[in-house]
Write a structure and sequence with these properties.
With 376 residues, the chain is α+β, with helices and mostly antiparallel strands. The longest helix has 38 residues. It has a four-stranded mixed beta sheet. The protein has a four-stranded antiparallel beta sheet with strand order 2-3-7-6, with no helix packed on it. It is globular, with a radius of gyration of 21 Å. Helices cover 52% and strands 15% of the residues. The chain folds into three domains: 106 residues, Butyryl-Coa Dehydrogenase, subunit A, domain 1 (Orthogonal Bundle); 108 residues, Butyryl-CoA Dehydrogenase, subunit A, domain 2 (Beta Barrel), CATH 2.40.110.10; 145 residues, Butyryl-CoA Dehydrogenase, subunit A, domain 3 (Up-down Bundle), CATH 1.20.140. The chain contains eleven helices and ten strands. Bound molecules: flavin-adenine dinucleotide (FAD). Flavin-adenine dinucleotide (FAD) binds next to strand 1, strand 3 and helix 11.
Amino acid sequence: MHKSQADIIDRAKQLREELLEPNASRWESEQRQPVEDLRVAISEGFAALDLAPELGGLGISFTEKLRVCEELARGCFAFTFSLINTGNIAAKMAESHSPLHRNHIPALISGEILGATALTEPGAGSDFAAIKTLATETRGGWLLNGTKAWITNTEIADLFVTYVQTDPAKGWKGIACFVIDARKEGFRRGEIYKLMGGSAIGAGEFHLENYFVSEDDLLAPPIEAFKGAMELINGARAYVAAMCCGVMQSSLDHALAYGVERESFGRPVIDHQGLRWSLVDVATDIEALRALTFQAGAYIDSGEDACFPAAYAKKFAGRAAVPAITACIQAMGANGLKRQFPLGRHLACAKIAAYTDGSTEMMNERIGAGLVSGFQ
Ligand SMILES: Cc1cc2nc3c(=O)[nH]c(=O)nc-3n(C[C@H](O)[C@H](O)[C@H](O)COP(=O)(O)OP(=O)(O)OC[C@H]3O[C@@H](n4cnc5c(N)ncnc54)[C@H](O)[C@@H]3O)c2cc1C
């Protein structure tokens, strides 16, 4: 696959126009993951965007991956989020030195199998170190027991990169990371949540019941696992921010199109200064969010610590996206409420974005700790 970055962005736009925009509303009403359509996108390399070409990836920079995320999320945040999440598993396998893990890459980037990442549990979200899924040593490995919750792609994934506690007395230092295969004994899919939107994310629960893992399934041992998760989350925060740019831009485009067409008091509604200024605020927030998002991307591409840039972008996304989309709905009058427009879907996903990969409050905690220590 030798495509230029410009070709990939163009193809993302085409995919949005031909696949995501025409189908996203149906995916939402069917309340299931559109696995066949997901495989169409994967077959074109969209689950291998920043994977090295020698491993079958497209090899684009992280910043360009952010552009793809924004482009696709303009059509459907939920589909894009699911797609990027399965792609992340291929990238994670590529980091492993184990040939057994790397052998999963071709199937993951062709869409033959799908992936997910599992940190959260019913009793532990923001406080990741408090997870309770337990690894107990047994002959030749460990037995895993516990429940994971709110996991993207639970409905369809085959491989789950899963974080478990090996020694509760050690807190975060006891957490290890394993590759779990949903097709093996001891794995049971649980509830798939019915949410106010974002159904294509397929968030739900799975249970591990005496699921056996050996040394071969160990992706990262304690300490390394927690630190690795914290590093990866910076990228995740940046692409969630990019997806928020997408839903905000799409909402603004619809509001502008309506404002030019619709008249009140003898002129297009966009010509009323009060309304126009509300959309100027939205446009300004999109520009600001993009700048923060691409700044985080630049840090990631240069290998610098992206902790604070990613937290700023994600925090701003969590604060700006919901009011921006509601302003766009308001600008369209009652018509903005109709399902023929994507704004309601976008609004639900903007709310989802305020939790995924760390809530807005956790971004405050992160940034606040940096302010206090003078560490930014
Ligand atoms: C659609 C969707 C998909 C997801 N996908 C995944 C996935 O693929 N993998 C995965 O592991 N997880 C996933 N998550 C889970 C997500 O990471 C968690 O929702 C997030 O970490 C917050 O945890 P929580 O929802 O349990 O909130 P809680 O931790 O219960 O927090 C409740 C509220 O308290 C606030 N809060 C908590 N602690 C503090 C504090 N110290 N100071 C101030 N406020 C605080 C939180 O911000 C939140 O507003 C997903 C979530 C959603 C909604």
